[in-house]
Amino acid sequence: MDKIRVGMGTVEQNGLDRSNQRLGEYYGMIMKKQIFFLMNRFSGKIGSFLPLAAWLLSWLCFSWVGVGQTAEPDEILQEVDQAMGADSQIMVIRVVNRRGAKEDAPVVFTIAKKGGDRLVAMIIAPDTVQGVTAFRSGGELWLRIPNRKVEMQQEGLVRTFIGGGLFNNEDLLHLDYHTEFQARLAREDQANWYLELTPKWPWVPYAQVSMVVDKAFKLPREVTQYGPNHTLIKTIRYTQMQHFRDGPMRPSLLETTNALNPEYTSTLRYGDVQPTDIPDTLFDKTALSKIRDYFLQEK
Fold first, then answer.
1. Can you give the residue range of the structural domain that contains 94?
2. Per-residue b/e over 209-235, b at no fewer than 16 CB within 10 Å?
3. How far apart are CA 133 and CA 290, in angstroms?
4. Are residues 63 and 35 located together in one domain of the fold?
5. Would you say residue 286 lies in a domain?
6. Which of 17, 86, 116, 218 makes a 20 to 30 Å CA pair with 51?
7. Rg for the chain (alpha carbons), in Å?
């Protein structure tokens, strides 16, 4: 599908953007003069300063040109997806649901993802649901219960969450955001972009999603999901930044609270993320019975 550019600026907004760009170029010129001054003053005294100054100067030449220019919303969304992990990876996820002082037994999943729209998952704990497997491709979700010979297609991504709690199948078996949504930049400040996301496909279980994106890390800080008539479904907070085996630092904990009952909470924690080449043959409803064997051999 071709990308559709949204949020085209008005004449006044475009004029403001040009003014901001000129202001950025002016400050960039001042900073470059300061660098040259420091180079001339200290080059004879501190030999190691020249490489640093050269690096700073090159950084300024590229970075200050962009001051005052707003990034394309769909490009921001793609950068968020890239920052959240590799295209082909295996993850271990632990979901904990709490109702006041009562905490349910953790539900632990192993999930394999390939590309932006295919995932398979298996529950490895607790024993009562161990071995349940799932396959998602786009808007289709297939489940397989141990000791059953027939795979079942679930109608709708939200109706029965295989892990229970406030997180639904869309949250657990999450496709890339740019695969499912078109973005509009509502506003921005020094630290964040504020995106409004609208679904591209009828299978997406939300009417609208709001996302706060950290500019420095290109990562979500908060995601709020809405139903029809802007009815709040839930807000997910992304916290506890951590390095994983695939390299980039990103949130390791997702938290959400029931809007009607604040004592009802769910957390989703990434225990491990491993980039690996996963065979295409695993991503098929006919391969649900083979998922367990694949995950065991990958340990």
1. 80-115+123-129+156-277
2. bebbbbeebbbbbbbbbbeeeeeebbe
3. 9
4. yes
5. no
6. 218
7. 23
Do 163 and 271 sit in the same domain of this protein? Answer: yes
* Same domain, residue pair 234 and 92: yes
List the one residue out of 25, 30, 98, 39 whose CA is nearest residue 68. Answer: 25
- Tell me which DSSP letter residue 124 carries: E
Q: 23 with 108, same domain?
A: no
pLDDT for 98-121, tens place per residue?
998 899 999 999 999 999 899 999
How far is 37 from 29, CA to CA, in rounded Å? Answer: 12
What is the reported pTM? 0.74
Query: Two tokens at 10?
Result: 């008005």
Q: What stretch of H or E contains 232?
A: strand 232-243
pLDDT, one tens digit per residue, over 158-183 is 555 677 789 988 899 999 999 999 99
Is residue 219 in a domain?
yes
Nearest to 256 by CA among 185, 163, 180: 163
Q: How far apart are CA 237 and CA 223, in angstroms?
A: 7
Angle formed by the axes of helices 49-63 and 11-42, to 10°? 170
Using the Cα atoms of residue 55, residue 81, residue 200 and residue 2 in order, give the sign of their dihedral.
positive
Pair 104, 228 in one domain: yes
Strands 264-275 and 249-257, by their bridges, are antiparallel
Band (150; pLDDT cuts 50, 70, 90): low
- Based on the domain organization, do 193 and 227 belong to the same domain? yes
Distance of CA 33 to the CA centre of its chain: 40
Q: Tell me if residue 196 falls in helix, strand or coil.
A: strand
Confirm whether 141 is domain-assigned: no
Dig out the tokens for 169 from the structure.
């199948």
Q: Are strands 140-144 and 192-199 parallel, antiparallel or unpaired?
A: unpaired
